[in-house]
Design goal:
434 Repressor (Amino-terminal Domain), 8 helices, Lambda_DNA-bd_dom_sf, Cro/C1-type_HTH, 2 domains, DNA binding, Transcriptional regulator, 71% helix
Length: 121
């Protein structure tokens, strides 16, 4: 499991140990110890990883199946809203609150702005 965790973090998520640790509320040294095999991955940590990153628990434990769960658009939306709700970042929540208060005309401005951003990428 330690190899799959390192593979998930580095190849799929492209996160440092610190970024990964912060996202699931562990210390960087704990993640390093898990990846080195010094410490076992607990079920609580498995649950946190799977929930945070939409990882297939079966794959993480056994290597079988797809790395990530396939969600319908509605399930993905629900998952993302749940993550936002659980997040402590007030900036993200304030942005979403402000967007939910937009009228149709304001949404057109946001749409045009987004299209311009895409052109620049």
């Amino acid at each position: 499991m330690k190899e799959r965790l390192r593979d998930l973090r580095t190849k799929h998520l492209r996160l440092t140990q610190q970024e990964f640790a912060d996202s699931i509320k562990l210390s960087r040294s704990n993640v390093g110890n898990i990846e080195s095999g010094i410490v076992q991955l607990t079920q609580r940590n498995i649950d946190a990883i799977c929930e945070k990153f939409n990882v297939n628990e079966g794959w993480l434990k056994t290597g079988e199946g797809e790395v990530f769960l396939n969600l319908s658009p509605e399930e993905e939306f629900d998952m993302l809203v749940g993550r936002l709700y659980a997040d402590d970042d007030s900036f993200k929540k304030n942005i979403i609150r402000a967007m939910l208060k937009l009228n149709d005309e304001d949404w057109l401005v946001v749409k045009k702005f987004t299209e311009e951003l895409k052109k620049g990428m």
